[in-house]
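Chain X:
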Amino acid sequence: MKYELMCILKPFLPEDVRKQLVEKIKKQVSSSGGKALEEDIWGKRHLAYKIKGHEEGYYILYRFSLSSDKVKELESDLKMTNDLLRYIIIKED
């Protein structure tokens, strides 16, 4: 199955920490048995409302393939990521 993952990172992370986090998320997909297809970095954007005290977030969109039974495993890994403000996983048609 193909999915999209939208992540919002904390806005003021140092560049090296942000790059490590981007790689960590891709590794979480691959360690769950998936394959990263595309990564689209949107950069820093203003949020519609504050999330954990932040008015801005750093947006990244991933497209990946993963078996449907492994999505919960990926979500549990993402929940443990401290510098991630929000994420959503959507199944593509």
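Chain Y:
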Amino acid sequence: MRILVIEDNRDILANVLDYLQLKAYSVDCAQDGLGGLHLATTNHYDLIVLDIMLPGMDGYQVCKRLREDARSEVPILMLTARDALEDRLEGLKSGADDYLVKPFALSELVARIEAILRRSRGSRKRQLKVADLVYDLDTLDITRAGQPLKINPLALKLLEILMRKSPSVVRREALEEALWGDDTPDSDSLRSHIHQLRQIIDKPFPAPLLHTLHGIGYRLAEKSND
């Protein structure tokens, strides 16, 4: 499980990071709202722990941007020193799944995280989505504009990597290592699989999603930044 912690208090951040890692979670960190929003929109996380009082952009704004602009359904646990009812309601209205008041016991934080993850697994489909391209991680079904697509297993793995990293660029070397490990075939193999994938997810549709950054790698996004 991969968790993003957005917290500007260095002591709290360090304690939370150490405890979550002891519990076998993979953790990324940010100390301001804009940095946290960037990480949240360019990476896949199973849950976000989000402080409200942040420099630059507060937690309410980050949460709203994730829900409204990024259309993200990642579970969010808000942290704050504010314990008034109005503050808790504002956090929930902005899209948070739960609310934990400081100071808190680290054991309670993990218990809340585990409870949210149980609920989210039961109530939300595990899907990756880029524009109108949807990959259902539970059924392995791929659709674009509602049309089912048939993709072979290796291309499916390639597509999942690109969708999880979208809209970021994934370097050729990273894709080759993820697909073949140390047993990488000749240099044309990745290009061939990219071509086959593009024929399936892009060719029948008006707007391309799979973009090549020559000499660097590939990205899956609505618009190319070439």
